[in-house]
């Protein structure tokens, strides 16, 4: 059974069609890259997988481990192992980073019927994870993402991913706003999580990130559908030829 | 148009009858009481056409006046043992009042620190204590109806004096517990004088039995002399049917520091009045508070901040969380007198609406008669932010827990200004306890 199976997905927001019959199959152990021009529906796909309420699914289904996730609340999806690294991580004034991490981790464990982590175990896990991502103890003492630079926010997303150990990580333009050093740190964080049991969808506009997170499969998204699928070399082709060739691709009539 | 004279309603008639029956028995201060009752009787209970009571129509709220509470029996005192437990982890000197009367067996008067003097208000009034007689009712004079009623009927309370230069480390915790089983009216009045350069921390807890019909009218006169430093916290967790009227009158001298926090979760109708007068220059006052309301609770915070001296700074930050059909009111008036140049006064009130049926009313007022001042106010009313909720839920945190985190953050923003860590934590625990009762 595929880990994720998206069948003929149609999504609207405020009556505007964004996804138009998207199909995608992701198996365990695979890293998929989804590339495409601005407005092609990349972020919408990410949000729909995570369960953001503003999006209306008008047709199609999304199966995670064979279960229809569209019926699930975002927190249930997270507990099943779906993780979205946000393109624009949100600042939450007044909520301490450690409280947030601990609440999230324990909520997921509880929902899966696992015991909560003890304070020392939790602290150890966070400190180790933070060190690998060059996240300072000072950052951990602040409120979630408050006063973080763009790069720090992205690293904080990867820290959360490392702690939560999702089965499917969806990275939405995680490379945007990162310099090359930060990009490597983030890519290493993603690569550490690669395993035969997990999968990732890396959404990006540029090929650059894929030098560091090497995908198994590359898809081109345009006007809400996947218009081309290939191996990692497709990303390089796109870098050379651009997306213009796909902009004119016909959209299936409704 | 002729002035409309309202007929006395049932509560006003009962108050007049109570007054006639009780005045000979109340401890001391007869002329002060008589004058106060006559002042009250001239206007009666304030109603919505009286501007300061626009949102809390006391005449409508008080359908009747409860009889004056009888002295607490052994059972009432036994029930009061657990009162003030919110501060169980904070080392305090407890002074416990049960149904408005001092309960020495529940209080701690042993080993008073040098410079600290404590007596009960009923004793001081009965014996005509000169110190109390010279000050009572004069801290911040007002013709406010709730204060007038309090002065007329005041029974007991604390009279605390901290001598010049004394630093009392251990917080003083005044616990007012309404634990009797009959409907009753409780009138408590305290006078706390912190003399020059002294330091003290004062906490008031007001709580009561959930099912009991009772009315509390409490007042505190706080005299903060020059260069003194006072922290005050008032925790109002009255029973679900209680009417709670509270008046804090604070007169703060020069180069002093005064911090107060008004924390409210309980009572059917709560009105917290603060009359603060800056009597000397160069003083800083932080006036903060948080109210967490649900059901049909009504909580009104009414502040009058009077800058009469130059170069003082006042900061007000109030947070109100409103669930169900609750109603939160914030009225804040800042007066800057002609001589109060270089005043720096800022006021903010924020309401967080958890329900479509809740209501938040904000009425800031600035009356500025000096020309070289900085004054400002801001008010916001909003829902929980959907994007923040989604972010938390996307990490596996269920809706209710995500809401709780954001509500704690909202309230915590005001609470974190409390300097005493133990008290700060106690209040945040009370917030968590409140959240755990949300449906």
List the topology elements.
The complex is a heterodimer of chains A (254) and B (439).
Chain A: E1 4-13, E2 16-26, E3 31-35, H1 42-50, E4 56-64, E5 67-68, H2 74-80, E6 82-85, E7 92-96, H3 97-111, H4 119-132, H5 137-141, E8 143-144, H6 150-164, E9 168-172, H7 180-192, E10 199-204, E11 217-222, E12 225-230, H8 233-241, H9 244-247
Parallel strand pairs in A: 3-10, 3-11, 6-9, 9-10
Antiparallel strand pairs in A: 1-2, 1-4, 4-5, 7-8, 11-12
Chain B: H1 10-22, H2 30-43, H3 58-61, H4 74-79, E1 93-98, E2 101-102, E3 116-120, H5 121-126, H6 130-135, H7 145-153, E4 158-162, E5 172-178, E6 184-194, E7 199-208, E8 214-224, E9 229-237, E10 243-252, E11 257-266, E12 269-278, E13 284-293, E14 298-307, E15 313-322, E16 327-336, E17 344-353, E18 359-368, E19 374-382, H8 386-393, H9 399-415, H10 421-436
Parallel strand pairs in B: 1-5, 4-6, 5-7, 6-8, 7-9, 8-10, 9-11, 10-12, 11-13, 12-14, 13-15, 14-16, 15-17, 16-18, 17-19
Antiparallel strand pairs in B: 1-2, 3-4
Can you walk me through this structure?
The complex is a heterodimer of chains A (254) and B (439). Chain A is 36% helix and 28% strand. Chain A has helices at residues 42-50, 74-80, 97-111, 119-132, 137-141, 150-164, 180-192, 233-241, 244-247, and strands spanning 4-13, 16-26, 31-35, 56-64, 67-68, 82-85, 92-96, 143-144, 168-172, 199-204, 217-222, 225-230. In chain A, helix 2 (74-80) packs across helix 3, helix 4 (119-132) crosses helix 6 and helix 6 packs parallel to helix 7. The model of chain A is unreliable at 249-254 (pLDDT under 50). With 439 residues, chain B is of the alpha/beta class. Helix content of chain B is 23%, strand content 38%. Chain B is built from ten helices and 19 strands. Chain B is globular, with a radius of gyration of 21 Å.
């Amino acid at each position: 059974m595929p880990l994720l199976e998206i069948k003929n997905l149609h999504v609207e927001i405020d009556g505007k069609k964004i996804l138009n019959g998207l199909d995608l199959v992701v198996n365990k152990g695979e890293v998929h890259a989804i590339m495409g021009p601005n407005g092609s529906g990349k972020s919408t796909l990410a949000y729909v997988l995570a369960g953001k309420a503003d999006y209306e699914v008008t047709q199609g289904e999304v199966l995670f481990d064979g279960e229809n996730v569209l019926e699930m609340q975002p927190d249930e999806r997270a507990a099943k192992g779906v993780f979205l690294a946000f393109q624009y991580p949100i600042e939450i004034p007044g909520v301490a980073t450690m409280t947030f991490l601990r609440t999230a981790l324990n909520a997921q464990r509880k929902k899966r019927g696992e015991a909560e982590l003890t304070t020392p175990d939790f602290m150890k896990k966070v400190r180790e994870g933070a060190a690998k991502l060059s996240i300072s103890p000072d950052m951990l003492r602040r409120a979630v993402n408050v006063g973080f630079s763009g790069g720090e926010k992205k690293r904080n997303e990867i820290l959360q991913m490392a702690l939560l150990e999702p089965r499917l990580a969806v990275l939405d333009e995680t490379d945007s706003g990162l310099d090359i050093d930060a990009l490597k740190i983030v890519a290493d964080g993603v690569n550490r999580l690669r395993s035969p049991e997990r999968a990732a969808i890396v959404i990006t506009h540029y090929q650059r990130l894929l030098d560091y997170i090497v995908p198994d499969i590359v898809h081109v998204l345009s006007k809400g559908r996947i218009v081309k699928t290939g191996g990692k070399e497709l990303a390089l082709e796109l870098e050379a030829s651009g997306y213009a060739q796909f902009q004119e691709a016909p959209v299936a009539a409704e | 148009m002729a002035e409309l004279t309202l007929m006395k309603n049932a509560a006003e008639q009962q108050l007049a009858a109570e007054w006639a029956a009780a005045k000979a028995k109340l401890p001391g201060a007869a002329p002060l009481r008589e004058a106060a009752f006559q002042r009250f009787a001239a206007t009666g209970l304030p109603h919505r056409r009286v501007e300061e009571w626009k949102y809390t129509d006391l005449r409508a709220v008080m359908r009747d006046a409860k009889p004056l509470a009888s002295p607490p029996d052994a059972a009432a005192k036994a029930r009061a043992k657990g009162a003030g437990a919110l501060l169980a982890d904070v080392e305090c000197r407890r002074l416990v009042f049960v149904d408005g009367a001092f309960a020495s067996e529940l209080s701690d008067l042993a080993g008073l620190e040098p410079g600290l003097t404590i007596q009960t208000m009923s004793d001081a009034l009965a014996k005509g204590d000169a110190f109390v007689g010279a000050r009572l009712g004069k801290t911040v004079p007002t013709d406010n109806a709730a204060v007038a009623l309090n002065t007329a009927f005041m029974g007991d309370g604390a009279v605390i004096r901290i001598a010049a230069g004394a630093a009392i480390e251990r917080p003083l915790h005044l616990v007012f517990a309404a634990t009797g089983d009959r409907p009753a009216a409780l009138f408590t009045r305290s006078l706390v004088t912190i003399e020059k350069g002294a330091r003290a921390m004062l906490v008031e807890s007001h709580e009561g039995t959930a099912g009991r019909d009772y009315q509390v009218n409490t007042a505190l006169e706080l005299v903060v002399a020059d260069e003194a430093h006072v922290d005050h916290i008032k925790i109002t967790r009255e029973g679900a049917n209680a009417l709670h009227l509270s008046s804090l009158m604070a007169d703060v001298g020069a180069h002093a520091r005064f911090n107060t926090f008004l924390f409210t979760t309980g009572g059917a109708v709560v009105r917290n009045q603060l009359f603060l007068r800056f009597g000397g220059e160069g003083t800083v006052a932080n006036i903060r508070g948080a109210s967490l309301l649900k059901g049909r609770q009504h909580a009104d915070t009414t502040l009058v901040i009077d800058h009469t001296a130059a170069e003082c700074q006042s900061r007000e930050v109030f947070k109100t969380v409103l669930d169900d059909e609750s109603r939160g009111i914030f009225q804040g008036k800042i007066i800057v007198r002609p001589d109060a140049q270089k005043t720096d006064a800022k006021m903010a009130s924020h309401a967080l609406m958890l329900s479509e049926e809740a209501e938040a009313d904000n009425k800031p007022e600035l009356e500025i008669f000096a020309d070289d001042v900085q004054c400002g106010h801001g008010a916001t009313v909003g829902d929980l932010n959907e994007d923040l909720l989604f972010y938390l839920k996307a990490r596996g945190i269920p809706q209710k827990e995500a809401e709780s985190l954001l509500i704690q953050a909202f309230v915590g923003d005001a609470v974190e200004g409390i300097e005493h860590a133990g008290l700060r934590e106690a209040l945040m625990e009370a917030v968590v306890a409140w959240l755990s009762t949300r449906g």
